[in-house]
Amino acid sequence: MRDDIVINDRALALSDQLIETFETIIDPEIELDMYNLGLIYELNLDENGHMFILMTFTDTNCGCADTMPVEVADKLKQIDGIESVDVQVTYSPVWKMTRISRYGRIFLGISPR
């Protein structure tokens, strides 16, 4: 799991499945998945299987701001142990290109440093 994501132990136990799921959710404007783009700020899974996600978008006018949170919730509910999902969107802190992973930078043709 990325070290810039705040994550509790229950969610961390599912990290491989979470990453795999997040990598299937693509930002259509940038054509990179939300995990490598760095859109996820926090993941918290409680004892009842409720997943809280705090995420952002690359800018406030992102065309997928209405659809991506619904897609995230729908896909995460398919993971065993996740019963419900609450996706909250924030613009504070503002997303920066420095949040793009090394893989994402290489994919987009940006210097990996």
TrEMBL record:
Gene3D superfamilies: Fe-S cluster assembly (FSCA) (3.30.300.130)
Domain of life: Bacteria
InterPro entries from the UniProt entry: Fe-S_Maturation_MIP18 (IPR052339), FSCA_dom_sf (IPR034904), MIP18-like (IPR002744)
Domain annotation MIP18 family-like: ranges: 17-89
PANTHER family in alphabetical order: FE-S PROTEIN MATURATION AUXILIARY FACTOR YITW
Protein's organism: Streptococcus caprae
Pfam families associated with the record: FeS_assembly_P (PF01883)
Protein name, per record: Metal-sulfur cluster assembly factor
